[in-house]
UniProtKB/TrEMBL annotation, chain A:
Pfam families: BPD_transp_1 (PF00528). It is a multi-pass membrane protein. Keywords: Cell membrane, Membrane, Transmembrane, Transmembrane helix, Transport. CDD domains: TM_PBP2. InterPro entries: MetI-like, MetI-like_sf. It comes from Pseudorhizobium pelagicum. Belongs to the binding-protein-dependent transport system permease family. PROSITE patterns: ABC_TM1 (PS50928). The keyword Membrane applies. One of its GO terms (cellular component) is plasma membrane. It is found in: Cell membrane. GO terms for biological process: transmembrane transport. This is ABC transporter permease.
TrEMBL record, chain B:
The keyword Transmembrane helix applies. One of its GO terms (cellular component) is plasma membrane. The keyword Transmembrane applies. GO terms for biological process: transmembrane transport. Residues 195-364 form the ABC transmembrane type-1 domain. This is Nitrate ABC transporter. Its main location: membrane. InterPro entries: MetI-like, MetI-like_sf. SUPFAM superfamilies: MetI-like.
Length: 294, 375
């Protein structure tokens, strides 16, 4: 059983990961070679092929940093530095994480409220739903830095502007998913509630809300990833001094490619963590509601 | 009492009118162009008339028309009265705006309760209700910003943004050409095609699918937009780097959705194809690809917004001196907020059109799917 799942699951994934890393090394050597050749010619250094490859993989500001350079950078900036240090990835991740969570929380609440309104008020259903969809065709992410600048002009700065961007991005999946979920109880079940002479309030809490739970958690996974993206992009304007986004921007200004890749890795780890946490929450709620594992 | 309950919006609107009567005049004492009592009484009469009509047992279509005229006429007059008097609106002004907004709400409620008996009527209603809603967002925005004199930098009124769009059409057109027609379209087509091709390949080779799918699922949750500065560093400042960002962003949603869609054909249909002795490619083209179309279009829709966002954000990291992202970041530096909003409005319209085209293509391609069959 275990060897079987190892063979069918882990082996293909590991193969693809190995292929990606190999391609990455190859790209690093090829992309960094011209600059290194230039350097060698100016310094009048002749080196064997192996030495040359070694040098392309250890440039301080390479075009494509080699995987081990990035790993070393991530390790140093995560574990070897004080958490409060300006160079610590933990510190920057924490700044981004706090506004992500604030925005995600507000977005989820807003999305649920909108969904409840849409399901219960017909006028809202007919008038609001098309605009909610249209609201997502606005590339709001593109003006995220502007929102931050404008809000800081009226002395609203720090966490709130970033959280607002995250809210805007995360309310949509939750609203759409919850509308679907709150409407998912079958007519039969709604009729049963009516024969019990349940009030709308009771129908909502005892039938619609539990039925919507799987939809809620599926859309929360999308929403939490979206709010992280929102927080990172909102950190791009020069006003922000901390966070993964500002680390990316600083890296791009000073050509610190290794730092940029490290920040990217930190963001990815954060995203994976957040999605996993929502997944665990979903499983806990499922167990609490007595859902049998499939 | 039951008469009052017929339309609480009307009742509250009447109350607000009475309150406004005690707070007259409309504008504060320092307003440079005071509003005459004639215009004020017309506004009050319109709102009161609409509110009273909402209690009467008249046919819904007629009632909706009356409410429509009353609410929008009053709103139009109110906004007209603040012209030249920005920032001098008194509390009566805002009370009356709120009252006419309530009438607009009542109008939507009446319209939403109409059960149309024809196809055309239904289409009109389906477009009209959201249109009124959208119009009221603009009306409240305009009345709020101009009545209260909100600083221009914070939030310009929609009329100023519209004027700005009209005045700078050539600049906007150049930006759209650079960002949309070069970067977005190229990146979108290449990214989606690549995702689709890899999905077909992964479908053919089981080993590849098992290896790629978990990684692609992980990747589509990651903040891929962060590669923008790296791409700008690799491919230079011009549109190629933006197209590269768009390709990377659109690739994974397409890959994941297409792989999911290729598994959507039922076992029964596959057995049927096998009993016809059709080979892999015939099954793919005639059964599994059509069955995958709803998933593919889902990815195309997701990607239509992602592509716009990717191209604009990538322009923040360096561009030639044209492009929507460039314009947004430089004009905000010069505090020309109306130009920024003009770009946003253009981007929103293009995004909606893009989405609409994909949705229409979906209707034409997947007309057989339950979600499109309707009734």
């Amino acid at each position: 059983m275990t060897t079987d799942s190892l063979k069918t699951r882990a082996l293909p994934v590991l193969t693809v990961v190995a292929a990606i890393i190999a391609a990455w090394y190859l790209a690093a050597v090829l992309m960094n070679a011209p600059f290194q050749r230039d350097l060698d010619r100016r310094g009048d250094v002749t080196s064997t092929t192996m030495e040359f490859i070694g040098k392309t993989l250890s440039q301080p500001k390479p075009i494509v940093p080699a995987p081990h350079q990035v790993v070393v950078n991530v390790f140093e900036n995560t574990f070897l530095r004080k958490v409060t240090s300006n160079r610590s990835l933990v510190y920057h991740s924490w700044v981004t994480l706090s506004s992500t969570l604030a925005g995600f929380g507000m977005g989820t609440v807003l999305g649920i409220l909108i969904a409840v309104g849409i399901v219960h008020v017909k006028a809202l259903d007919r008038s609001l739903m098309p605009w909610i969809i249209a609201s997502q065709t606005v590339p709001i992410l593109a003006i995220a830095p502007m929102v931050v600048v404008v809000l800081s002009a009226i002395n609203v700065s720090g966490l709130i502007p970033k959280a607002l961007i995250s809210t805007y991005l995360s309310f949509f999946p939750v609203a759409v998913g919850m509308v679907k979920g709150l409407r998912s109880p079958e007519l039969m079940h709604l009729d049963l509630m009516r024969t019990y002479s349940a009030s709308p309030w009771q129908t909502f809490w005892k039938l619609r809300m539990p039925a919507a739970m799987p939809f809620l958690f599926t859309s929360m996974k999308v929403a939490v990833a979206a709010s992280l993206v929102g927080a990172i992009v909102a950190e791009l304007p020069t006003g922000a001094v901390a966070g993964i986004g500002s680390k990316l921007l600083a890296g791009s200004y000073y050509s610190q490619t290794i730092d940029m890749w490290a920040a990217l890795i930190a963001g990815s780890v954060l995203a994976a963590l957040l999605v996993t946490i929502v997944g665990i929450g979903s499983r806990l709620v499922d167990r609490r509601m007595g859902v049998k594992p499939a | 009492m039951s008469y009052l309950l017929r339309s609480w919006q009307g009742a509250v609107a009447l109350l607000l009118c009475l309150l406004a009567l005690t707070q007259l005049p409309l504008l504060g004492p320092e307003a440079p162009l005071p509003v005459g009592s004639g215009a004020t009484s017309v506004i009050l009469l319109l709102i009161a008339g609409g509110a009273l009509a909402s209690f009467l047992p008249i046919p819904s279509a007629a009632l909706a028309a009356i409410l429509f005229v009353a609410a929008h006429g009053a709103a139009w007059l109110l906004i007209g009265s603040v012209d030249g008097n920005e920032g001098h609106a008194g509390s009566a002004f805002f009370l009356l705006v709120a009252a006419s907004w309530l009438l607009g709400w009542r109008c939507i409620t009446v319209l939403a309760d109409i059960e149309p008996n024809g196809r055309a009527a239904e289409t009109v209603l389906r477009l009209l209700i959201p249109a009124i809603f959208g119009a009221w967002i603009l009306i409240l925005w305009e009345a709020g910003t101009r009545g209260a004199g909100v600083p221009f930098i914070l939030l310009p009124p929609p009329s100023a943004i519209g004027e700005r769009i009209g005045n700078s059409l050539p600049i906007l057109a150049a930006d759209v050409r650079q960002t949309i027609f070069k970067a977005v379209l190229f990146g979108y087509v290449v990214g989606c095609a690549a995702g689709f091709a890899v999905a077909i390949l992964a479908d053919r080779v089981t080993f590849l699918r098992r290896g790629v799918l978990p990684i692609a699922n992980l990747m589509s949750a990651l903040p891929i937009i962060g590669v923008a500065p790296i791409m700008v560093m690799w491919f230079g400042f011009d549109w190629q780097s933006k197209a590269a960002v768009v390709i990377v962003m659109t690739f994974f949603p397409m890959l994941v959705n297409t792989i999911a869609g290729l598994g959507a054909a039922g076992a029964m249909e596959r057995d049927l194809m096998r009993s016809y002795a059709s080979d892999y490619w015939q099954t793919l083209v005639k059964l599994r690809l059509p069955a995958a179309m709803p998933f593919v279009f889902n990815a195309l829709k997701i990607n239509s917004t992602l592509a716009l966002i990717g191209a604009i954000v990538a322009e923040f990291f360096g561009t030639p001196i044209v492009g929507m992202g460039f314009r947004i970041s430089t004009e905000i530096g010069r505090m020309n907020v109306d130009m920024v909003w003009a770009e946003i409005a253009v981007a929103a319209v293009i995004g909606s059109v893009f989405y609409g085209v994909v949705a229409l293509a979906e209707r034409a391609t997947t007309f057989w799917h339950p979600s499109n069959r309707g009734g």
